[in-house]
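pinned: reference chain
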Amino acid sequence: MSKINHCFTTLRQKARTALIPFITAGDPEPEMTVPLMHALVKGGADIIELGIPFSDPMADGPVIQRASERALVHGTSLRDVIAMVADFRKDNSETPVVLMGYLNPVEVMGYLPFADTSANAGVDGVLIVDLPPEEAGSLRVSLNQKDLDQIFLIAPNTSEERLDMICNLARGFLYYVSLKGITGSDRLDVDSVKEKLQRIRTRTDLPLGVGFGIKDARTAAQLGKISDAVIIGSALVERISAFNGKTDELPGVITIFLSSIRHALDAV
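pinned: its structure tokens
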């Protein structure tokens, strides 16, 4: 059983919703990423999504785009991101870590070297935003060889045929994009999300996480009632950007903010 599967199994036994925060590796500076990952765990994170900085993050809104820009100014590479996970693992061997990013840096590194280096560092899953399931076979083979879960996105307009394909290929959990658009958008329709999740559940037993458009504890609690996981990114990254230059205070601020989300989910 993968670490991600074990996490969800444990949470289901406790009737709890997983909290999955996202931060961009290298933002606001590379030395802060590992302390921030530990701050997320302290704030109640069950799984961490660690963003790989990329120059053209097409699915991300301006908040996360700027985070990638800040990380790239410091020269944060894919190998640096993987090394950060290895550093995090020195003090935390339990919390699953998912790398989330775009295909180009992975292709440059090579699928098998990427999978091998990631697994050795303690990565548990990979989500490549711009890799469609129809073209994911080669990477999937490499990830499977190293027991890494390949996670896929499902959009509100995903067709029935494509949904079946994704459910058959995915491991770990499925990431449902709660709205059409980019990260950080603000047009969340909880009833529509509920209807879509019910449709997906007829096709898979994988846990369903919901992300995009979750900005606060109230929204997280609404989605926590209908999903297996709540994924929060832009709201966190926005707080990180506000503390650029005052990084000593940042981990505490992030822990407090995420704790408010954790408490809201636990209250549901």
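why pinned: The chain has a mean pLDDT of 93. The chain has one domain: 3-8+17-267.
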